[in-house]
Amino acid sequence: MKKFGLLVLGITAGIVALANLGSLLGLGVSALIVFAGMHFYLKSESTFLKIFWASVGILGLISAVVNVPGFFGILAIVGVWYVVKKWNNESVSFSKPVVKSDDPFVNFEKQWNELSK
């Protein structure tokens, strides 16, 4: 029954993500416009250019707000990612993974820090 629920959730999230591809593209273009506006605003020195690039950034923010379905598409993509992880019995964690190394110097430094506490 758990696999059936994951299957239904995955199919639904996939359909929602595909239905919102245009909005996702519009959201990406809006993000690029906002980034360009901020970048050139910080680089410009004249007041006219600062006003121009600030208005470009504000227009990019407004167009990002208009693309609300794009945010639903992002949530659907996260839902598909969650279903794939759960389907493969992998843990879903948003913390940084602990990487263990076989390098003797790394282990020595870790043990030295533990001893010097």
From TrEMBL:
Keywords: Membrane, Transmembrane, Transmembrane helix. The keyword Membrane applies. It comes from the Bacteria. The chain crosses the membrane at residues 7-39, 51-84. This is ABC transporter permease.
